Amino acid sequence: MSGSADDVLLTAGSWLASGRAVAIATVIETWGSAPRPVGSHLVIDADGNFEGSVSGGCVEGDVVAEAADVIASGQPRMVEFGVADETAWRSGLSCGGSIRIFIDPVT
User: Which ranges form a coiled coil (predicted)?
Assistant: First the structure.
């Protein structure tokens, strides 16, 4: 789902209030044909539920997996996907471009 940034942040607040462990992924840099602009958000809980979008479906699965580790460790992480490495084919950015996403646990 690709609701507005406000909707995603409201979801994060609601999930936190209900006791769910949460991380927020934010697009911080793009190049080429990345489908979501800088500042786009994805909120993820420890069970893999998510709201929002950082790539229009290209890398959400990988970001959710990375977020599980971020939630478990409590340590933020920067991830990057692009045509210059093996993630291009695994994660669906084979059309070109790159995307850098910061994943931050929220407490």
Answer: none
3-state secondary structure of 2: coil
Structural domain count, the chain: 1
Q: pLDDT exceeding 70 applies to what percent of the chain?
A: 81
Judge contact between 22 and 15, C-beta under 8 A. yes
Q: What are the pLDDT digits (tens) for 72-107?
A: 999 999 999 876 655 545 555 545 678 899 999 998
Domain range enclosing 92: 5-106
Taking alpha carbons only, the member of 43, 34, 30 closest to residue 4 is 43
- Complete DSSP assignment for 8-52: HHHHHHHHHHTT--EEEEEEEEEESS-SS-TT-EEEEETTS-EEE
Q: What is the pTM of this model?
A: 0.84
